[in-house]
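Deviations from the work plan: none for this task. Representative record:
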Amino acid sequence: MNRWKRLLVSEHWVLYLGVACFLILFPFTPQLASIENIRNVFSNMLPMLIVAIGETIVLITGGIDLSVTSVIGLSSVIGASIMSSDQGLLAGNPAAAAAGIGGMLLAGLFVGWLNGVAVARLRMPPFIVTLTAMMFFSGLAVWLTQSRPIYGLPARFNELGQGAWLWVPNALIIAGALAVSAHVLLSRSLLGRWIYAVGTSTRTSLISGVPVNRVITLAYVASGGCAAAASILYTARLETGSPVLGQRILLDVIGATVIGGTSLFGGKGRILWTVLGVWFICLIDNSLNMLGLSHFVVMMVKGGIILFAALMDATRTRVLAG
Amino acid sequence: MSARFLRVLLLSLAVIVGCSRVGPRPALTIGVAFEILQTEYWVASFEAMKDELNRRGITMVEAIADGDANRQLEQIQSFIARKVDGIIVVPKDAKTVIPMIRAANRAGTPIVLYNRPCDRTDAHAVAVVADNYKIARATVEYMAQQAKKTGRKHKALILIGDLGDINAIGRRDGFDDALKGFADMIEVIARVPTEWNQEKALAGVTNALQANPDIDFIFTSSDFLFPSIVSALKTAGKYRKVGEVGHVVLGGFDGDATAYQMLADGYLDADGVQDVYFESSAAVQAVLDLKAGKDVPDRILDEGFVINQANLKEASARMWGARK
C-alpha cells in the first residue's frame, strides 16, 4: 500500500483533513490560529461532542437517534421550570440546582428508554420511532412553556457551562469524563462487545446469547442521557431554559459522527473518531465564520465540505475492501 | 510514517499559532450578527447596515444564527477572537444576549444591540430601538379616527407577536392605549397570539373571522403577517379597498414592501414605519463612538413615523419598503 493509500485508510484521516483545511484557510484569516480562537473551537465542540457520543453508541448498534435535539429542548425547560428563581418549582431552595439537573437527566433517560423499548421490543424502525419522538417531545417542550424561554437560573448551575475548576473548564471536565467512560464502555467491557455484535448482526448475536433487546434499549437510554447532559451545558451557557434549544444541530451531530468514521449501517465506530468528527465540524464552522463569508456561502461551503468528507469515507471503505 | 507525519503537522501548527500573534490590521472591522434573516425587515436592516459600513470604509464580517441563540453566542465569541473593533448584534431575545454582552465587555469590545434591547443587567451595551409603543399608538389612533368617520361601531382584532420579545409587548400596549380613547366606538373582541409565525397568524385570523364575522378593524404587530391576514380576509370575502362598503380598517407595523403595495393599492389604512436607515446608521455611529471612548446613551430611540392614505406620496420616500 503506498503512502497516500495508507494516509487515506488511517483511523486519523479526519484529523489530517481538518489540519489540511486549517492550513489552507490560515493565510486568509491568521486569527484562526490565535490561542483565543482555538479555545473557542474546543469550547464550542464540547456540548455537541456529548450529544455525538450518545449518537455513536446508537449508530454502532445499527440504529439512529433523531430525537436528541428534542431531548435537549425538553430537558432544558424541565430543568429550568424546577430551578428558575422567577417561576421555578423550587425557587429559592438551595437544592434547586441539583434537583434541576436531576430532572433534566431523568427526562433524557426516559425519552431514551421509550425509544429503546419501541425499537427493541416492538421492532419498530429506529428512524420512524425517533423521528416521531423528536416531533412529540419538541412539541411538548413548546407547549409546556407556551414558547417562552425561562430565565433566572441559579448561578451555581450557570457555572457548569461557563466556569472552571482549577483553570480547567467545567464543560471540558464533564465532556471528557463522558468521552472516557464511553470509550472504556465500548472498548473494554462486555456490554461494549455486545453493542458491536448487535450492530454487526442482530441474528448472530441473538443465537450467541447476547441480550439483544436489553443492549438496544441501553444504547438509546445512553443517547437520551447524553443529550440531556449536553442540554445542561447549552442551558447553562445561555443562562436560559429554552424549548427550541439545540433544534438546529441534528445534522451537525450525525454528520460529525459519520465523518468521524462511525458507520450508518452499524457494527463500526469509536469515540475517538467521533471526537475528531465533531472537532472537524466545529473547525469548519469556526473557520468559515472567521473568514467573514456571507451566511449563504457558509452554508454552501459547509455542505460541500461534508459531502467531500463523505465521498472520502466511501473511497476509504472501497480501498479497505481491497 | 504516521507518527512522523503527525510530528510535522504539530510543528507546523505551533509555528502558525506563534505567527498569528503578529500582523498589522489596516482598517476597522465590525462584526454584525443577526439572529435570523427571515423577514423583509431583517433583510432590509442587514443590507442597510452593510451599505452604511461600506460607505464609511469599514470592513464588515457577518454571521447569521438561524434562530439558534447558542450558535449566536459562538459567533460573538468568534468575533471577539478575530479581534473585531466592535459588534452589532440582533439578539434572539432580551435574556440570552446577556452572556454575549458579558463576553464582549470582558474583551473590551464595544457592543450595540440592534432593534431589540436586553433585559436589565450589570453588563453594558447600547441598544438602538424603535419606539414601538409610540409608533404603534400613533398608527392605531389614525386607524380609529378613520373608523370613527364611518359613524358606526367597530369590532377589533389584534395579532400579537412573541411576548418574549419586548418589541411585541410595546406594540400591543400601544394598540391597547390608543383604543382606550375610542372605547365607545371600538371594542377589541379578538387577540391572536402569533409567536411571529405566519401559519399561526393565518389559523388565528381565520378562526376569529369565523367566530366573529363582524370584525372590521385589524391591527398586526408586524407587516410580515399581512399575507396571512389578506388570505383569511379573501376567504371570508372581506378584502375591500378603503372607502368601499365592507372595508375592514387595516393597520400594521414595520414599513415593508407588502405594506407599501397594499397602501398604494388602497387596501391598507395606515402603517407604523421603523426607520431602518436611521437605526442602521445610529448603530454604526454608536459602535464607533464607543470604540473612541465617547459617552453614548444606553438607549437610542428611533421615533419612526406613520404612513397612511393621506400622506402616502410624501412619506413613502422615507419608507424602506417603498424603495426598490
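The longest helix of chain A spans residues 212-238.
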